[in-house]
Design a protein that fits this description.
Blueprint: E1 4-15, E2 18-29, E3 33-37, H1 44-51, E4 59-64, E5 67-68, H2 76-82, E6 83-86, H3 98-109, H4 114-127, H5 143-155, E7 161-165, H6 173-188, E8 192-196, H7 200-206, E9 209-214, E10 217-222, H8 224-229, H9 234-244
Parallel strand pairs: 3-8, 3-9, 6-7, 7-8
Antiparallel strand pairs: 1-2, 1-4, 4-5, 9-10
Helix pairs in contact: 3-4, 3-5, 4-5, 5-6
Length: about 250
């Protein structure tokens, strides 16, 4: 039996008069890869940001990686060690080398000695295919390389859960594949992942489950083969037709 790693119940998020999430219930098991799809403004990124409390839910509960994220006394520092996040923009420290970008949080947050943190940084850079760039600054790397470094930085904390918010949307098309291949490797290694993506081929190949959001609610969810080929609801059918057949 799988261990449940994420439990989201009755999640609402309101910005002023705009209710972006309208009662989300979602469970994710350990080792599961769940892709969130849906039109812009459907609440996908807000849902992701509520999981690690970058946005505070208006109502409902979020349990993730052993932490009650909606409890007033949640230890956010501890929670964010266990929940890695990769954004659309790479958010690397521009004044630090690639090596230091990955080592700094290990030293400050985990208390690792410098040599140990740098050794782990080098191991992770090799894992994401950016070895040999340790002394470079972020501006000297391609967007795809920077995003792979951002993934390595998140992995350096040893998270139980990885959140990806459209990690390829800021990349030139020819660089998308190299980031997705790193994510495929993580999935193959058993990392639990919640991914907001427009890359339907990635969702089809890697996801255990695809969740379609629209208007702040989960309209439909299921295995990728069923969701992407034979969605049951008209809203999902219309969205997928537009995404998969943009010239029609």
């Amino acid at each position: 039996m799988s261990n449940r790693l994420v439990t989201i119940s009755g999640l609402h998020k309101r910005f002023g008069d705009n209710e972006v999430l309208r009662g989300i219930d979602l469970d994710i098991d350990e080792g599961e890869v769940v892709c969130l799809i849906g039109p812009s403004g459907s609440g996908k990124s807000t849902l992701l940001r509520c999981v690690n409390l970058l946005e505070e839910p208006t109502a409902g509960t979020v349990h993730a990686a052993g932490h009650d994220m909606t409890h007033p006394d949640v230890d956010l520092d501890a929670a964010r060690r266990d929940i890695g996040m990769v954004f659309q923009q790479f958010n690397l420290f521009s004044h630090l080398s690639i090596l230091d970008n990955i080592a700094i949080a290990q030293r400050r947050v985990l208390g690792r000695p410098k040599a140990e943190a740098e050794a782990e940084a080098r191991r992770l850079l090799a894992q994401v295919g950016v070895e040999g760039k340790e002394r470079a600054r972020p501006s000297q790397l391609s967007g795809g390389q920077q995003q792979r470094v951002a993934i390595a930085r998140a992995l350096a904390m040893g998270p139980a859960l990885m959140l990806f918010d459209e990690p390829t949307s800021a990349l030139d098309p020819e660089l998308v594949g190299e980031v997705l291949s790193v994510m495929k490797g993580l999935a193959a290694d058993g990392m639990t992942m919640l991914v907001v993506t427009h890359e339907m081929s990635f969702a089809r190949e890697v996801a255990d489950r695809v969740v379609f959001l629209d208007g702040g609610v989960i309209v439909e969810q299921g295995p990728p083969a069923q969701m992407l080929s034979e969605p049951k609801t008209e809203r999902a059918q219309g969205f997928l037709h537009r995404v998969l057949h943009p010239v029609d």
